[in-house]
Write a structure and sequence with these properties.
Layout lengths: L2 E6 L2 E6 L24 H4 L9 E6 L2 E2 L6 E3 L4 E9 L5 E2 L5 E4 L2 E4 L8 E2 H4 E2 L7 E3 L6 E3 L11 E7 L18 H8 L4 E7 L1 H4 L4 H4 L8 H13 L3 E5 L7 H6 L2 H4 L5 E5 L2 H6 L3 H18 L4 E6 L16 H6 L6 E5 H8 L18 H13 L6
Parallel strand pairs: 4-10, 15-16, 15-17, 17-18, 18-19
Antiparallel strand pairs: 1-2, 3-14, 5-9, 6-7, 6-14, 8-9, 11-13, 12-13
Helix pairs in contact: 6-13
Length: 385
Amino acid sequence: MLSQKLIVGGVLAFALSATSLRVAAQTIDTLDRHWPAYINLDQYMQPFLMADTIYNELVMPLKDGHAAPSGSLLFPVRSVLSVRDAYLDIVYEEGKDWIWEGQRIVLTDSSRIPYWDSCDLVYNEVKEGISQPGSAPGTYVLFSEGELIRSKQLAVTYIPDRRGNEAAKRLLPTTDRLTYTTGKLAASERLHVVFWGNSIETGANSSGFQHVPPFMPNWTELFVRQLRQHFSAAVSYDNLAVGGKMAAWGLENIEQVIAKQPDLVVIGFGMNDGSAGVPVDIFAKQIQAMMDAIRKQRPTCEFVVITPMLANPKAIQNRMQEAYRPALLALEGVGVAIADMTYWHKWLLTHKSYQDMTGNNINHPNDYLSRWYAQVLTALFMESN
């Protein structure tokens, strides 16, 4: 885990890199590689808010006090179809390993399912190699860029009970701001997309990125796949994101994006900026300056700006990410749409634990939250609700 010390507003802030190495994304189309043996991407991309069946929602069983370990599902349940490990290898048995109560998967006394105790997530003495400083002084938070977190997550497939469910009233928003892009898609014309951001945009901690089952492509690839399939369009892409970077770096290196001659640029900075305490006005101006520089060379280019997911509230990385949301929403306009992941992640956290949705327990999405990224972006271009 690399760290970069910055002085922001006279305060020493730590911009902790979102990956153990500053790995750049690679534009290698992995959509037809290992995943077909494990998962169905058509099922995976059915909008969670409307799907008749929820496939492989990830859950982290947690134990707090004397209660049995359990984990929350997003929706009320009509029936649970399967509970597996996150690699989709081990099938756990109802009654023997787990039962379901309301929206919770509860481990039995005889369960083979691994879990974390709450004291394993936040503690007072550093554990070498698997710790990050906590947001509270003198505390540490469990952390791993490997398989430590995923190894104790469950993949639950279930039929949700939509009756009287307030979540069923929510819809992923579309946009009318990107007329150039939507026109090209509707005409099945060539569209070139460039992704620009940090490790979240590289796909860090998705199973495909980690080269482990079920090998799900990262969310940028899922998004491109949906556009290709829905519009029968020749959508090409370059993923130029680099782990650990902030918007200042994105602006300084914007010529890399321009050189790819994009029609659509997806901008996803904010996680590391928030951890470093970059002031809201400076951050927003940097994002706007990126778009201005690209438009100067590519006047028709359009943009999707992503508001950042939230960092673990118990981790030192949790600082200003949510504060960026209003300033980024204000950037919406002709040729600029907002994918509001801050809103959706915050809402999800009212139903599920942070550990259900993270790959490293501090600031990376796992496969489940990555599917939300892909679905939120896809919904901008098609009424998939």
